[in-house]
Amino acid sequence: MIARILRITVGGALTSTGAALALSRLRTGSYGPGVNCTAHWLYGNKAADVHKLNVAHSFTGIATNTAAVLFWSWFYDKALGRTPKMTRALLATAALGPVSCLIDYKAPPKRFTPGWELVFSRRDMAIIYFAMVLGMLSGVFPSLEKSESSKA
Question: Out of the domains of life, which is the source (predicted)?
Fold first, then answer.
């Protein structure tokens, strides 16, 4: 169970961070703002104006994103159940992006949101959430293979 949560977290963190970096480069000409903006809870909205990757802003932003993905990984793992079937995995995965986005942006105070709106359009943010969900799903595949192959 813990191994699956870690696989889900790593997959989601890598893909969402990768999407934020790529979209940031595309939209701003620099990789920094896409990950630095997530450090706005510590440095304020000016974190999104830091265009270079650096330890203070970038590490904080990436670590914050990874912690958020870990939080969602726990709920996702619970929704999947011990031995998920493909249908259940697909339904839980389809719900994950919209639910996490809605709660990330509506439940906490503004300072504790992901901060992506400081750099990205809603469409870009949807791409980042979609990337996160696909990465998280990749962490489930070993569990699906076990549950599907245990029938044989």
Answer: Bacteria
